[in-house]
């Protein structure tokens, strides 16, 4: 595998379910991100990790819980979601946060539907 | 704080015509600027980036962008549109120095007519 991979690619879950999204980067990067992309809305940054430490949490509801066990893996744990949480969830990585000049590499996303 | 404005949520061109996607930014310090493309059912992919070297930046797939400090702009162009260019395009800004997370524009959907 190369680049950034995300599993599953599609997920349908009920509002009472618990599920997890997985992201893995094979680029040796130090920073990883979760974004939410909804139809007709701008890209929303959810969480940022740098060297496995969370550095940003953009007022995301507690029903979303991130986990970064090492610099290559990032998880998003989901529980008691709402229908408005249906969206494309994108994972990204970058070499570092420092200086801001590093581009992000995105995974293909997980299409989440909450029923 | 930084921000990005992409003028026009949709741009429609004919195949073979010039593509111009507009991006204006605000930043309190010299910025780094990026253009990304997103094809349907895929993640974002870097097209090109400006990191204070040449003001005219060439990217993949024949795209280029020019950094104009006086106009705080970083517009994306391509001389001749191809059907395969139809996608969503995002401009992003990241201030230089320190640990900064990029800010994305709302995106512009490029529609290419045969």
Which structural traits does this protein have?
heterodimer; A: 115 residues; mainly beta; 7-stranded mixed β-sheet; 0% helix; globular; B: 114 residues; 12 strands
Describe the structure.
- The complex is a heterodimer of chains A (115) and B (114).
- Helices cover 0% and strands 56% of the residues of chain A.
- Chain A is an all-beta fold.
- Chain B has 114 residues and is an all-beta fold.
- Chain B is globular and about 45 Å long.
- The mean pLDDT of chain B is 92.
- At the A-B interface, β5 and β10 of A face β5, β6 and β10 of B.
State the separation between the terminal residues of chain A, measured CA to CA. 32 Å
**What's the helical proportion of residues of chain A?**
under 10%
> Per the principal axes of the C-alpha atoms, what is the gross shape of chain B?
globular
By DSSP (H or I, 4+ residues per run), the number of helices of chain B equals: 0
Largest interface: chains, residues each: A-B, 24 and 25 residues
Mean pLDDT of chain B: 92
**Beta strand count of chain B:** 12
In short:
The complex is a heterodimer of chains A (115) and B (114). By secondary structure, chain A is mostly beta strands.
Produce the secondary structure layout:
The complex is a heterodimer of chains A (115) and B (114).
Chain A: E1 4-7, E2 10-13, E3 18-25, E4 31-37, E5 44-50, E6 53-57, E7 64-70, E8 73-79, E9 87-94, E10 105-106, E11 110-114
Parallel strand pairs in A: 2-11
Antiparallel strand pairs in A: 1-3, 3-8, 4-5, 4-9, 5-6, 7-8, 9-10, 9-11
Chain B: E1 3-5, E2 10-14, E3 19-21, E4 24-26, E5 31-38, E6 44-50, E7 56-58, E8 64-68, E9 73-78, E10 87-95, E11 103-104, E12 108-113
Parallel strand pairs in B: 2-12
Antiparallel strand pairs in B: 1-4, 3-9, 5-6, 5-10, 7-8, 8-9, 10-11, 10-12
């Amino acid at each position: 595998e190369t680049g950034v991979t995300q599993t599953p690619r599609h997920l349908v879950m009920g509002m009472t379910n618990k599920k997890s999204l997985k992201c893995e980067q094979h680029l040796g990067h130090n920073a990883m991100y979760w974004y939410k992309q909804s139809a007709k809305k701008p890209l929303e940054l959810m969480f940022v990790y740098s060297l496995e430490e969370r550095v940003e949490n953009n007022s995301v509801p507690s029903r979303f819980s991130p986990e970064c066990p090492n610099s290559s893996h990032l998880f998003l744990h989901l529980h008691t979601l709402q229908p408005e949480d249906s969206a494309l969830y994108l994972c990204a990585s970058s070499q570092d946060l420092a200086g801001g000049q590093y581009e992000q590499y995105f995974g293909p996303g997980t299409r989440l539907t909450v029923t | 704080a930084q921000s990005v404005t992409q003028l026009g949520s949709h741009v429609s061109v004919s195949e073979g015509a010039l593509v111009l996607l507009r991006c204006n930014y605000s930043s309190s310090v010299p910025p780094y600027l990026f253009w990304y493309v997103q094809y349907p059912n895929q993640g974002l992919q870097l097209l090109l980036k400006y990191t204070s070297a040449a003001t005219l930046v060439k990217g993949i797939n024949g795209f280029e962008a020019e950094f104009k400090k006086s106009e705080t702009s970083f517009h994306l162009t391509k001389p001749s549109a191809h059907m395969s260019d139809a996608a969503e395009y995002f401009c992003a800004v990241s201030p230089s120095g320190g640990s900064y997370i990029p800010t994305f524009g709302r995106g512009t959907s490029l529609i290419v007519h045969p």
